[in-house]
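for the recovery benchmark. tokens below, seq after
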């Protein structure tokens, strides 16, 4: 009996009304002697599992098409309809494979921002990734390669089930190495296991001349993951540079996704890799049409290239080592063009705000908070003053004269480390080893480490000693403080590189959380009672019936830069120790900072990649310098980036957040003040539904009705703002 119990399945996959049992179960010979007719067992088992049909997995067919050989136990038809992540998958489980373990990757692909993109899926199957990227991610068109006839049948069925018009998915049946198109893709999917290496060359050939993304799947040994990723980058870059016209392309890893454990110590990963022409080259690459115009003097290079050689290969041979090129203008005069890709795209480099000294940026408004001895003598009058003069203006303001309590004098590193509770209070700290000192929330270039408050203070103070020795080369940088406006991008970049090399690599950052971090916002008095008695929180600026939502202790290493983000609550940032430079952008710069949710992926705010983030140079920030004893009012939705100056000591500050709107506007589970408002989230969901509806239309109809909706939204929602 024990042997039979062990032979029962302990896990299974549910696909629609069918349960797919694992291969190794129900194989004991005693089953047939106990139950000559196993049909009764299957019926009971199906009822227990809440399904109508049962199937059992078998070894995958040893063919190039990897057909499923699952057998039906109950029911005669293997076709199922499975819904996940807003899409529908139809397949015959006896002929096609389906891995429930890949659900996170399918949903991740569906959340990519692919609006207007052309995608090539080299191993489409039934549409595991093709369907989500079309139905959810907004891709304009997919070339779907698949050589399994059964999978192609299911793919067509899935396109219909998800209301995807035929013109948005071109199904190419056959070997992807022979069928895949070239020079068309913004993005290529390589979802084949155990390895997709056989399709790498095909993938890079499929990318547009301007480059694009590869999503490379592989099963790797867990201990060798880093080495494998590095080797993959080198090989793909080598394959790319062997292609005519792509000798100067660069491959960069943007993200590594851990999908599932495939076997003990074998992990299924996906490497998101971006391939682009080197910035110094791409600034002057001709378009495809221009490259074909052999007689156009605009692209005639001197040197080794003849006037009739219009190929990218011939064109690139005319490049100088610094990425510029000599060309002959239509008037026949020789001129140097394209010193930097971004300059060719966005205009003269000297006009960029981040290439000039930061002191030339507009400063936030400064106000002196009235004291009790002035005409404002009561709490009632003070909060009314703040409401009228500061809060309602919806602009950041530097508050001087606000009483912060004795913390400004008392909170030295030694004082914090010597507090009795400092050795027992545990905190969760962001730790990064980035030489730039920049924390990247979008790509998570940090880890979390639990330590005591005393250990944190000592670690930050130790880093401060290192940074003081090199305080003249901090990240605000010699090019921002000392260089003249209009200095070259190369010299600015060199200054920043030197600065980052001269400061310690390990940076620490504490953003305190609640006592129960899953259910409570941070409160200084609850988590750090010894410190709470030293700080005067800005409750005097709020109406008597309003309380603070949270009070957050922040401790950071010198030279640390936080990611750019916004909050949905108003806040006052009170600086206790150290000096911070805060860049702030109005909400209207949301698109210029390429925001993903509430955070921006642009980490190098003073040295951005303008090929990738072209609109960034159009953003209009203001600057605030926070010194001990000053406070900054940051209105909700203002984007901000905070940098702790090296040489100014460990940065210690306290944030006070409050809800200035009725409580029902805020998400109940928002403990950090950065989740979008309830109505905004609901509107986002409705927009998603609208987009899915319009995607069913042909392209020119889709564009027409999308523009009409934009006009309607603008007229109805923005006319009074």
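predicted aa per position
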């Amino acid at each position: 009996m024990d042997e039979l119990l062990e032979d029962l399945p302990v896990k299974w996959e549910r696909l629609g009304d069918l349960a797919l049992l694992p291969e190794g179960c129900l194989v004991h010979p005693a089953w047939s002697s106990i139950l000559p007719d196993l049909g009764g067992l299957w019926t009971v088992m199906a009822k227990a599992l809440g399904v109508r049909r049962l199937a059992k997995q078998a070894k995958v067919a040893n063919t190039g098409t990897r057909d499923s050989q699952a057998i039906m136990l109950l029911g005669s038809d293997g076709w199922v309809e499975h819904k996940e992540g807003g899409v529908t998958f139809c397949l015959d489980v006896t002929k096609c494979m389906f891995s429930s373990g890949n659900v996170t990757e399918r949903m991740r692909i569906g959340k990519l921002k692919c609006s207007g993109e052309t995608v090539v899926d080299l191993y489409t199957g039934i549409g595991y990734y093709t369907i989500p990227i079309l139905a959810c991610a907004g891709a304009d068109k997919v070339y779907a390669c698949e050589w399994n006839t059964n999978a192609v049948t299911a793919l067509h069925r899935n396109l219909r089930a998800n209301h995807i018009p035929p013109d948005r998915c071109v199904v190419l049946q056959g070997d992807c190495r022979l069928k895949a198109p070239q020079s068309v893709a913004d993005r290529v999917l390589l979802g084949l296991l155990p390895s997709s290496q056989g399709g790498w060359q095909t993938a890079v050939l499929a990318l547009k001349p301007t480059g694009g993304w590869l999503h490379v799947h592989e099963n790797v040994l867990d201990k060798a993951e880093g080495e494998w990723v590095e080797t993959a980058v080198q090989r793909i870059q080598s394959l790319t540079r062997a292609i005519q016209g792509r000798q100067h392309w660069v491959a960069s890893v943007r993200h590594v996704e851990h999908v599932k454990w495939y076997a003990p110590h074998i992990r299924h990963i996906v490497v998101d890799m971006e391939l682009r022409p080197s910035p110094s080259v791409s600034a002057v690459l001709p378009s495809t049409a221009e490259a074909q115009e052999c007689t156009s003097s605009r692209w005639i290079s001197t040197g080794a290239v003849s006037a009739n050689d219009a190929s990218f290969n011939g064109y690139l041979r005319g490049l100088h080592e610094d990425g510029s090129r000599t060309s002959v203008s239509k008037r026949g005069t020789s001129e140097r063009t394209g010193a930097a890709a971004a300059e060719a795209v966005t205009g003269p480099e000297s006009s960029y705000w981040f290439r000039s000294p930061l002191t030339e940026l507009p400063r936030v408004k400064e106000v002196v908070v009235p004291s009790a001895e002035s005409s404002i003598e009561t709490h009632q009058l003070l909060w009314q003053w703040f409401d009228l003069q500061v809060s309602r203006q919806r602009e950041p303001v530097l508050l001087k004269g606000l009483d912060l309590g004795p913390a400004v004098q008392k909170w030295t590193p030694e004082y914090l480390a010597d507090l009795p509770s400092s050795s027992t209070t545990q905190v969760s700290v962001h730790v990064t080893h980035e030489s730039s000192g920049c924390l990247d929330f979008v790509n998570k270039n940090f880890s979390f480490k639990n330590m005591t408050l005393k250990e944190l203070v000592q670690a930050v103070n130790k880093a401060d000693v290192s940074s003081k020795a090199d305080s003249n080369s901090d990240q605000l940088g010699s090019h921002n403080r000392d260089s003249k406006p209009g200095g070259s991008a190369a010299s600015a970049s060199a200054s920043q590189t030197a600065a980052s090399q001269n400061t310690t690599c390990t940076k620490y950052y504490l953003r305190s959380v609640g006592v129960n971090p899953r259910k409570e916002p941070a409160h200084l008095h609850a988590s750090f009672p010894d410190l709470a008695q030293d700080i005067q929180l800005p409750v005097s600026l709020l109406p008597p019936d309003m309380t603070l939502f949270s009070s957050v202790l922040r401790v950071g290493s010198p030279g640390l830069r936080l990611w750019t983000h916004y909050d949905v609550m108003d806040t006052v940032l009170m600086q206790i120790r150290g000096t911070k430079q805060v860049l702030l952008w109005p909400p209207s710069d949301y698109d210029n900072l390429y925001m993903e949710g509430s955070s921006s992926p642009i980490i190098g705010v003073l040295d951005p990649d303008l090929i990738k983030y072209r609109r960034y140079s159009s953003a209009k920030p203001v600057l605030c310098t926070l010194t001990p004893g000053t406070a900054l009012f940051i209105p909700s939705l203002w984007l901000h980036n905070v940098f702790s100056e090296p040489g100014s000591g460990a940065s210690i500050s306290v944030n006070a957040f409050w809800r200035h709107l009725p409580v029902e506007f805020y998400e109940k589970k928002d403990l950090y003040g950065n989740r979008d408002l309830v109505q905004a989230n609901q509107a986002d969901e409705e927009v998603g539904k609208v987009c899915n509806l319009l995607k069913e239309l042909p392209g020119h109809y889709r564009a027409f009705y999308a523009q009409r909706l934009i006009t309607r939204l603008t007229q109805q929602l923005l006319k009074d703002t």
